[in-house]
Inverse folding.
């Protein structure tokens, strides 16, 4: 449990889930994520075992994609309605080595061995900008040494307001560089409607 982070979030994600206001949902994992596991250069950077985490997992596509027999993956989401849907849609999750938990990224119990892999997509941009330093500190606490954080950076533009709040590569570098080494970064070829607005990066915990 972390005590030093600001906790209060003003955006009502539960209301969005209750109203079905989930326009961010593309119905599948981003092709930019799945491509990392097909490319020999990037695949070898990602641990094949241990614990994985997807904060703000939404409909959970990435949790299902990342879980393997050697890697247990937890999808975390704040919204009770979201997690109830996930539990209903995935009655056999345990057999497939994943689970879903309704919890706050900034305040959930960290497993003793910590995470060997975390995936952040449309999560940083969902948070009010004042939470960004806490977001970075939290990843530095929950990822094990030599563990990997994959960030699919979106939306890279300079619009005002949000969510999604605008991001850029330098923002991620500024937030993560104290605790992570950047191993890989590339313009992402993800969902068609987001082309030109995404980069994908692999960071190793120091
Ligand atoms: C924009 S949605 C993205 C969902 C998913 N990553 C996707 O790409 O479809 C952001 C999600 O983060 C969840 N969320 C926001 N703040 C959170 C927090 N502090 N802890 C856990 N989940 C949070 C919201 O409930 C919402 O489902």
């Amino acid at each position: 449990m972390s005590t030093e982070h600001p906790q209060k979030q003003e955006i009502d994600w539960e209301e969005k889930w209750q109203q079905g206001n989930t326009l961010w949902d593309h119905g599948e994992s981003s092709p930019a994520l799945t491509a990392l596991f097909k490319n020999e250069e990037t695949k070898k950077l990602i641990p094949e075992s241990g614990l994985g985490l997807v904060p703000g997992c939404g409909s959970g596509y990435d949790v299902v994609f990342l879980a393997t027999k050697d890697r247990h993956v937890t999808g975390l989401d704040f919204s009770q309605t979201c997690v109830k849907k996930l539990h209903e849609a995935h009655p056999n999750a345990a057999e497939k080595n994943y689970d879903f938990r309704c919890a706050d990224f900034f305040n959930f119990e960290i497993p003793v061995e910590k995470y060997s892999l975390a995936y952040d997509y449309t999560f940083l941009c969902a948070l009010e900008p004042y939470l960004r330093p806490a977001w970075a500190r939290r990843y530095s606490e929950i990822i094990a040494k030599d563990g990997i954080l994959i960030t699919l950076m979106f939306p890279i533009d300079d619009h005002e307001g949000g969510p999604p709040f605008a991001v850029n590569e330098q923002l991620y570098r500024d937030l993560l560089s104290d605790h992570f080494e950047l191993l890989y970064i590339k313009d992402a070829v993800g969902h068609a409607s987001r082309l030109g607005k995404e980069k994908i990066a692999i960071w190793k915990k120091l």
